[in-house]
């Protein structure tokens, strides 16, 4: 079962006196993101001076700023930081490496904004972090202004453009990274898109097999959130294949714990903390590990509701009943046990002496924060 006490996801576990702490890296990241946002705004309005957007109150750069500054956890940047510190003993470490760490972290944070905005459009999500999603908020502005055409289509189109702007700036930053790091960034993006495709086609096909659900979770969440950012940090430090392999093992299991907790929060989380309504993934028939287990464990009416064979979407009024049936069948407890096991195996990956001790301490805290967070 889950542990009850968790360190903060942005915990202050410090590195050696000569290396920046995560807190210092985060502060540097925020400054760099502010520079990027200011540059985007300056360039945008220089290219089209005096051109009012119409219908929407704020133009795309301001919508992007709002998303970047909306209070995200900065998990991916944190993983770049800890991956870099994990390889501090690697030969050839230079004093200017921290600037590269920050640049890679900024690229990943902007990539994350792109992913969230486009994911919300594809999932038709109404809220994110307790606020209306971009496409929903813009659609409301369209209605208020009496805009022509479909307000929903307009909102989705503007949101896609905001995501495209974030993606373009992420790629611009990534273009200046060392070749090996840039290659991993590209792999990250391909895995992210592949995971989203698996998610969409899996939902459309009614997939409920556990192997497919795990593949979606690893590509959409595990690799993109933990594994690849860690690998990029190690590569900035000049770390070799052995430490990369150790952290990829850690990342595979810490990322799995993150994805499993995400699934549980989407069903049993507090909307006041998660900022998202309960049951969206269930209604949409997303091919999650939780739903795959439910299709195996439930019986009777509830089995027919979740087994993926029906072409009729789940009635939102039945969500509470399905959740109760899952709890009674032991699905939630089984997933909690899976999370605990993933954290244990992630810990073991840090025990082979490859990872610098101060980084191992930070990574252990991160794994627990990812696995037992409440939002």
UniProtKB/TrEMBL annotation:
> Which region ranges are annotated with the description Disordered?
1-23
Name a GO molecular-function annotation: metal ion binding
- CDD domains tied to this protein: Trans_IPPS_HT
Cofactor(s) recorded for this entry are: Mg(2+)
What is one Gene Ontology biological process annotated in the Swiss-Prot or TrEMBL record?
isoprenoid biosynthetic process
UniProt key word Magnesium: yes
Q: Which keywords does the record carry?
A: Magnesium, Metal-binding, Transferase
Show the PANTHER family listed in the entry.
Answer: GERANYLGERANYL PYROPHOSPHATE SYNTHASE, SHORT CHAIN ISOPRENYL DIPHOSPHATE SYNTHASE
Q: Which family does it belong to?
A: Belongs to the FPP/GGPP synthase family.
Name of the molecule in the record? Geranylgeranyl diphosphate synthase, type I
Query: Whose protein is this, by species?
Result: Auraticoccus monumenti
């Amino acid at each position: 079962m889950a542990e009850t006490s968790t360190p903060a996801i942005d915990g202050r576990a410090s590195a050696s006196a000569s290396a920046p702490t995560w807190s210092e890296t985060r502060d540097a990241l925020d400054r760099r993101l502010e520079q990027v946002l200011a540059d985007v705004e300056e360039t945008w309005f220089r290219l089209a001076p005096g051109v009012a957007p119409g219908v929407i109150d704020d133009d795309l750069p301001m919508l992007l700023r709002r998303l970047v500054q909306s209070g995200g956890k900065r998990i991916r940047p944190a993983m770049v930081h800890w991956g870099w510190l994990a390889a501090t003993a690697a030969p050839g470490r230079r004093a200017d490496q921290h600037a590269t760490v920050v640049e890679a972290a900024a690229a990943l944070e902007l990539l994350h904004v792109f992913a969230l905005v486009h994911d919300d459009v594809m999932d038709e999500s109404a809220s994110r972090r307790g606020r209306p999603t971009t496409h929903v908020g813009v659609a409301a502005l369209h209605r208020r202004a009496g805009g022509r055409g479909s307000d929903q289509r307009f909102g989705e189109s503007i949101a896609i453009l905001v995501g495209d702007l974030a993606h373009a700036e992420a790629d611009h930053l990534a273009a200046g990274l060392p070749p090996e790091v840039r290659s991993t960034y590209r792999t990250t993006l391909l895995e992210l898109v592949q995971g989203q495709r698996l998610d969409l086609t899996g939902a459309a096909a009614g997939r409920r097999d556990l192997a497919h659900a795990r593949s979606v979770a690893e590509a959409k969440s595990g690799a993109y959130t933990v594994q690849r950012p860690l690998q990029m940090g190690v590569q900035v430090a000049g770390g070799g294949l052995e430490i990369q392999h150790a952290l990829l093992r850690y990342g595979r299991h810490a990322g799995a714990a993150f994805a499993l907790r995400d699934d549980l929060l989407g069903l049993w989380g507090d909307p006041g903390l998660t900022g998202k309504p309960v049951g969206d993934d269930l209604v949409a028939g997303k091919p999650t590990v939780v739903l795959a287990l439910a299709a195996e464990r439930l019986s009777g009416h509830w089995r027919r509701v979740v087994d993926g064979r029906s072409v009729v979407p789940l009635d939102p009024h039945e969500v509470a009943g399905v959740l109760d049936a899952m709890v009674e069948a032991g699905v939630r407890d089984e997933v909690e046990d899976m999370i605990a096991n993933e954290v244990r195996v992630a810990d073991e990956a840090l025990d082979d002496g490859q990872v610098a001790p101060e980084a191992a301490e930070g990574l252990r805290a991160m794994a627990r924060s990812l696995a037992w967070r409440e939002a």
